[in-house]
Write a structure and sequence with these properties.
100 residues; alpha/beta; five-stranded mixed sheet; 3 helices; 5 strands; globular
Length: 100
């Protein structure tokens, strides 16, 4: 089992380290084809990628923030992330059959 942390943001990496998260592989971009059953993927993935993680038997933990509009679109420090109540929330995502 591999624990992946998917982020290109320095603040998020610092936050993960300060929170004591065990990470086997840190990547800026996840190739979902590398995810094996039982793997844990942590990050803020687009929904279709999160669904692929779940389809492959992985577990997806979203890095959630209560982000005010004034902080959107900028790099956050680990301290700012904590102030925005950074947390990991597990989601089980599946594709619905058919087309919209």
């Amino acid at each position: 089992m591999t624990t992946w942390f998917v982020s290109r943001h320095r603040g998020a990496l610092a936050w993960a380290g300060q929170e004591g998260l065990h990470v086997d592989r840190q990547v800026e971009h996840l190739d979902t084809g590398d995810v094996q059953p039982g793997d844990i993927v942590i990050g803020s993935l687009p929904v279709q990628m999160a669904a692929e993680v779940c389809e492959r038997g992985g577990r997806y933990f979203h890095l959630s923030l209560d982000l005010p509009q004034a902080l959107r679109g900028r790099e956050l420090s680990a301290e700012e992330m904590r102030a925005c109540k950074a947390r990991l929330e597990e989601f089980c995502i599946r594709r619905c059959p058919g087309e919209a």
